[in-house]
Amino acid sequence: MRPRKYLNNKDLLAEIHKSKNSYSSFLTETDHQFDIILPSLDKINIRTVAQAKRNRADRLQKQAYEAAYLENKKVKQAEFAVDWRKMEKTDLVFRIMSFDHIPLQPGRKKNPKTVADHHVQCNFPPFQHYRFDDNDNLFCVGKSHWEGGLDNGHFSKEQGKMTPKLARMFIKLCERYGTRSNWRGYTYNDEMQSAALLQLSQIGLQFDESKSQNPFAYYTAAITNSFTRVLNLEKKSQNIRDDILEQNGMMPSYTRQNANEQAARDSVLTPLPKAD
Predict the structure, then answer these.
(1) Rounded Cα distance, 253 and 134, in Å
(2) Which residues fall within 8 angstroms of residue 28, CB to CB, at 6 or more apart?
(3) Which are the contacts of 161, defined by CB distance < 8 A and separation ≥ 6?
């Protein structure tokens, strides 16, 4: 078996996809797997249809190869190549980023700047899935934040949940990041990890696959910000404690003592200005 990394973008994207599907409703079981992401229906044209066919062919090729690899078959990925030119347009699924099915909420933002500011706040960017019928007409086959049938259902953002595997990935990310040399020495490392895990649970599904295919970098940046925020808060609290201790004639922390000693040495080494 080939060695696996402790986390990779492929596994993260798969779990993000499953988590978002739990908040969504689809016409059939196969309509959840999109082939291309577009900002609007107007972007569906000859070029994007061809790109969707290439993406679908590439995904099918990789799935077939991995299935054979798991059976310990000695095969090459090229053996499972799929000709995208022979694909039917009716097999493609287009993910359209859209707020059309999200209810309006006037006044949610004092100064709305984007389309999202006019609608109910969602835990991830909403979307709809579309297919071509036999007459080359597009019809909707899926909606995010939706419960029930596509025609007789209703908006809902409470029916889904994050997959347990994605939650374990978040825990592993925070634990691994907390062992880095620039963080592991702090006594409040556990608080840093807890704050980062809370942040990931809040923004984990906000990752937008239409803008990037690198969720690992997205989550790492969020963890870094959380760790830094806790560090700044602890430093601020420590400075307040040291000020109170010094005002009462008591011994401050070693960090403040070292800073005071360094300041005293610097004042001694600083040459006095020459008299005129």
Answers:
(1) 75
(2) 141
(3) 19, 22
Q: Which residue has the tokens 């030119």?
A: 85
> Structure tokens of 16?
């993000």
pLDDT one-digit tens code per residue, 88-97: 999 999 999 9
pLDDT at 276 over 70: no
Q: Please state the length of the chain.
A: 276
DSSP β-bridge partners for residue 23: none
- CB neighbour list of residue 142: distance below 8 Å, 6 or more residues apart: 24, 25, 26, 27, 31, 32, 93, 128, 129, 150
Q: What is the DSSP string of the chain?
A: -----SS-HHHHHHHHHHHHHTTEEESSTTTTS-SEEESSGGG-SHHHHHHHHHHHHHHHHHHHHHHHHHTT----GGGG---GGG--GGG--EEEE--TTSPB-TTSSSS--SSGGGB---SS--EEEEEE-TTS-EEEEEEESEES-TTT-EE-SSS----HHHHHHHHHHHHHHHTSTTTTT-TTHHHHHHHHHHHHHHHGGG--TTT-S-HHHHHHHHHHHHHHHHHHHHHHHHHHHHHHHHHTT----HHHHHHHHHHHHHHHHSPPPPP-
Confidence of residue 1 (pLDDT cuts 50, 70, 90): very low
In this structure, what are the phi and psi dihedrals at residue 120, rounded to the nearest 5 degrees?
-60, 140
The amino acid sitting at 243 is D
Q: In whole angstroms, what is the distance from residue 182 CA to residue 56 CA? A: 43
- Residue 124 Rama label (left phi>0; alpha psi -120 to 50; beta): beta
